[in-house]
Amino acid sequence: MVSPISCLSILVIPLLVTSLFYQVSNAVNNTYLDSICHKSTDYELCSSTFAANNRTPTADLDDLFRISISANINLLHTTIVKQIPKILETLNNPQDKALLQNCQTNFTNAQEKLTNAYLASVLMDYTKAKNLATDAALLNANCDNEYNTTKRPSPIADVTGKVGKLIFISFIIVNEIIP
Known about the structure:
Blueprint: H1 4-26, H2 30-39, H3 43-51, H4 61-90, H5 94-122, H6 126-150, H7 157-177
Helix pairs in contact: 2-3, 4-5, 4-7, 5-6, 6-7
Pfam family, one: PMEI
Domain Pectinesterase inhibitor: 28-173
Signal peptide: 1-27
């Protein structure tokens, strides 16, 4: 007579093996992630962004897209809430204040676009996610363009540069998902 444990093991062991294979086969390997970062405009930023996230080792392309979007949302949030208010306190020139406040508004709107891009990716609507990320990139560029037009130095040029690079990384990944 066959014991209940034997029957259970006949069912469970193949499921465990299958799930392990599925996890390994869907995860993006380090070589592939490295090739994505080499396509970016800033290899170090790309590598460090993914290295800082504990989901990266088991991530598939969908997850990598969401990790890159999340990193950008966090950067924008920190800039909007902490960095820009501190800079505004130090500015005396009304034009400088207006430019930075415009950037703060653009960043707030870009953060909302990226949040919606993240949500669209969860629903696997990558065309919508890509369009929303494009909108966020344009809002980021508007900040730089306003400073360039007035020939005034941007106190957050490093942030706008980083936001643009992170969005480009998201584009690289989404273009792998939907060629």
